[in-house]
Known about the structure:
Layout: H1 2-10, H2 39-57, E1 100-101, H3 106-109, E2 121-122, H4 138-152
Antiparallel strand pairs: 1-2
Helix pairs in contact: 1-2
Amino acid sequence: MSEKSAMKCQGKTGKEELNNSPFELYFQYGTNKERHWNFDQIALQFKDCVDCFEVLHGKEFKSCWIFDHSCGHDRGREDGLNISNMGVKGGGKQATLCDSKIIADNEFLGPHNLLLKVKNIQQFNFQEGDDGPYYLNTIQRDLRKNNVRGRNE
């Protein structure tokens, strides 16, 4: 993870030289300054802190690290369920999203959903054999399926 973060922040995977303690860091907050503190910067700082801790104390001690930072809008799983990654149309390039197992009770699903059941696996990508987007009629869906197959073959 820290290699991806290093590429994003520094443009290379090697570690930057430490000139100050990584345990305390100051930066100028805001869009026109050093921006916002994000997951990638935390990952790099954490790696530096762990490295320093191990140099100072060896590997004989275990450490516990506590973070007070929400990355809700900053980082998620690459295959995570993020609305901006979900394709609403069949065909074309789609992000591969993780499957989701429905573990809540039937009350959570509501009385109107006839397809989803507890313990089902819900997939968020169109699969081979799926009908396709609900808003297309049968002819439009068939045409789109044929176009998808033609591009992928």
